[in-house]
Amino acid sequence: MGDRDDRNAIGRRVQRLRAERGMTQRQLAEPAYTPAYISTLEAGRVRPSDEAVRHLAERLGVGYEELATGRPARLATDLRLRLTEARRTLATEGAEQAAGQYTVLLAEAEAHELAEERAAALLGLGECAVETGELAAGRQYFERAEQCLVEADAPLPARVPAVRGRALAHYLAGELRYAVYLLESTLDELNRGGLHDPDALLLLYASAIGPYMDMGAHARAAQAAELALSLAPSAGDPALVARMHRSVARTLLAEGRLAEADASLAKAAELYRTLQLRTELANCHWMRGYVCAQNGELPRAEAEMREALGMLSVTRAALYSSQVAVELADVLHRRGKSEEAAELLHDVLDDLSSERGAVHSAGAHRLLGIIAEDARDTEAAEEHYVRALSLLERAGAAGDLADLCRLLGDLLRRTGRVEAALDAYRTGLGHRTAPGTTTLGPAPAQPPL
């Protein structure tokens, strides 16, 4: 039961505020109520109506919310301002600093039972954890944020960032199919239900690109990229506009104009979300680069992937940067720049592991194996292939596994180990033909663009 429904709490609050102001019960009651009613209310024997609370709040010189709940009128607005500051920090400075801000804000939101602000702080902590590679912790934060919003009866578009966060954490941990399930089922619910929220749809489509690619669903990944780019919001310099809205909100808050301050904060928060979408839009450039590479347009592919890498470097998204770097290295190798590619891959492996980017770690080892084979270093090539195979088996990336088994089999056959080569080929065929590994089922419903 909340404070608004607790007549004892409201009664004690009325009595305390009246005493602080030196008012009698008659002065507080008139002209709409009687001193006896105030006495009964302060004793906790009656629950005041909304009209009565508004009358008493006006007489006591406080806001309706403060009298009804015990929370200062500007508390929620002040928390939203600081949440916007934390989002700015995450978008422009880095995850570790932002996490400290979000931790403090979460404690305050929980202490004052502010559900939406609590969910926003949990979501921010989840985003920080994912960017620093703490995937299990990030997933837990996203789950708590989603549950908090469900309990507050928030609409589905408001819950999308938490759902997307969960999917991303599963994807980066190598759980590709579950990540796709989360994203596609939410897209279906939005589109079939007519909930055409461009920001929510952009976030979901862009987030699906990585899992689609790793599962071999290239056509679906290309479609998701084009839909995401068509939905992308346009803003000249969102950082400058957001800064302006934050400054305006501070002024309005100081003047007690809370509703207007909230409106400015909402605009600032939306722009900082746009800034954070650099990561998602970078994925779209990466996808375009991949398509160009598949079509043999290697210079354009390199340009698109360097664009993606540059966008990710601005947001200090080290894990995502490493993933795109693997794809860029493949293009560099195909363009005859194998030394540059190998150097890039060795740097990448310092940031990836079986728990953090397993598929792309395997991709780095696979490409290093190919480069080693080109240099006739078969021992190093085999070592890289075996490491990649172990990583891909854990992630369940069937398409990549089949291709890697072919590469390993070819290497073993060329070095005279025919039986071992046959085993590798059989393993690859098993992954290629395993039920359910080459289909994702029907695509999610599309938005009415």
Uncertain stretches of 5 or more adjacent residues: 1-5, 433-440
Helix coverage percent: over 70%
Instruction: Please trace the helix and strand order, writing H or E for each element.
Output: HHHHHHHHHHHHHHHHHHHHHH
What is the 3D shape?
Answer: elongated
The biggest sheet, with number of strands, parallel, antiparallel or mixed sense and barrel status, is: none
- Rounded to an integer in angstroms, the radius of gyration calculated over CA atoms is 28 Å
Strand portion, in percent? under 5%
What is the oligomeric state here?
single chain
Give the strand tally. Answer: 0
Number of helices: 22
User: What's the overall average pLDDT, rounded?
Assistant: 80
The N- and C-terminal alpha carbons lie at a distance of 44 Å
Q: Tell me the structural class.
A: mainly alpha
Describe this structure in words.
With 449 residues, the protein is mainly α. 77% of the residues lie in helices and 0% in strands. The chain is built from 22 helices and no strands. It has helices at 7-20, 25-29, 35-42, 50-60, 64-69, 75-92, 95-111, 115-131, 135-151, 156-172, 176-192, 198-214, 218-231, 238-254, 258-294, 298-314, 318-334, 338-349, 358-374, 378-395, 398-414, 418-433. The longest helix is centred in the middle third of the chain and has 37 residues, at 258-294. It starts with 6 loop residues before the first helix and ends in a 16-residue tail after the last helix. 47% of the residues are buried. Mean pLDDT is 80; it is low at 1-5 and 433-440.
